[in-house]
Amino acid sequence: MDTTFVILQNGVGNEEPFRNAFPYCSIVSCVIWVGATQDSPGVIRHTASEHTDIGLYPNPRLEAEVEETRLEGFAAMLRAGGTPYTISDDIQVKRWEKVVWNVAWNPLTTLTMQDTQQWLSSSKESVSVTKRLMREVIGVARRSGVALEYGLVDILMERIQGMPGIESSMQVDAREGRRLEVDVILGTPMRKAREYGMDVPTLATVYALTVAVDMRIKQALGGLG
């Protein structure tokens, strides 16, 4: 009961295994916004930006005051280390916002081998395809009970258009011949869409194509990885 788990990992559904295994512990859930690249095995280079959204994965078995104290304890560690952060009252909204971002830019840059600006300026259809993909993922989030607004699409598009061209981590993995994080980035929204019987043609197409690229990489590695 005195233990607090801190999950510094993007994606959705990350907290459930910990809650199931440790039902009387607190969970601080975090969403990471950071630019980094893996130069070599075990060597990660920070390239741009740094921000962390943090919040509680509420435990009804514990008093709210106890959980808030534990959240503040972790926040104090971030302050001491100089890490920019924001405390969110609903961390699941932040988690799904990052999923919408990742589902768009990671596979689209990987499939085209273009950075974000190159992709967006590549044709008249590129922006509309990206927006449809984002809207479909937001629809899955809303069906899951997460209060995402469709206006997030315009917010994220404005953000990316104000940035220099970005090569996604998945794009770098593909170029370097490493297996892709298909399940981590695309798997959960795709599975939930199937579970809900939702029609998500753009998401389904991007998912299928990304899986195919990952399988090609797997075969090139001799079926390993």
TrEMBL record:
Top EC class of this enzyme: oxidoreductase
Entry keyword annotation includes Ion transport: no
Domain Ketopantoate reductase N-terminal: 2-58
InterPro entries documented for this protein: 6-PGluconate_DH-like_C_sf (IPR008927), 6PGD_dom2 (IPR013328), ApbA (IPR003710), KPA_reductase (IPR013752), KPR-Related (IPR051402), KPR_N (IPR013332)
Keyword Ribosomal protein: no
Pfam assignment, any one: ApbA
GO molecular function, one term: 2-dehydropantoate 2-reductase activity
Recorded superkingdom: Eukaryota
GO biological process assignments: pantothenate biosynthetic process
Domain spans labelled Ketopantoate reductase C-terminal: 90-210
Membrane-spanning parts: none
EC number: 1.1.1.169
Gene3D superfamilies noted in UniProt: N-(1-d-carboxylethyl)-l-norvaline Dehydrogenase, domain 2, NAD(P)-binding Rossmann-like Domain
Keyword terms of this UniProt record: NADP, Oxidoreductase
Similarity section: Belongs to the ketopantoate reductase family.
Function comment: Catalyzes the NADPH-dependent reduction of ketopantoate into pantoic acid.
Identification of the protein by name: 2-dehydropantoate 2-reductase
Organism whose genome encodes this protein: Aureobasidium pullulans (Black yeast)
